[in-house]
Amino acid sequence: FAKQPTPGASVLVAGLPGARYDDVQFVNPPNVRARLVFFFDGRTEYELNCRSTLAHRAQVNSACDEVIASMTRS
User: Fold this and answer.
1) Long-range contact list for 14-21, CB < 8 A, 24+ apart?
2) What would the DSSP string read from start to end of 2-54?
3) What are phi and psi of 67, to 5 degrees?
4) Which tens digit of pLDDT belongs to each residue from 9-19?
5) Is the preceding omega at residue 30 within 30 degrees of 0, hence cis?
6) H/E stretch holding 71
7) What pTM, to 2 d.p., does this model score?
């Protein structure tokens, strides 16, 4: 569970509206942070949860960016 609410930013993922939350800190496991991206197609919600420790945060965030950029609607 997240430690504290984090302000989200409005985003478009594959042309769908959504929200992105960066650097979300979790109580358990400790020292884990996440980038959470939610996007919506009508009543359907999609979630991308990119979690990492500090040691791997840059690498995971880069991979997360690639996934978001590659999303398309079929």
Assistant:
1) 14/39, 14/71, 14/72, 14/73, 15/73, 16/40, 16/41, 16/46, 16/73, 18/46
2) BSS----EEEEETTEEEEEEEEEEBSSSTTEEEEEEEEEETTEEEEEEEEEEG
3) -65, -45
4) 999 999 999 99
5) no
6) none
7) 0.82
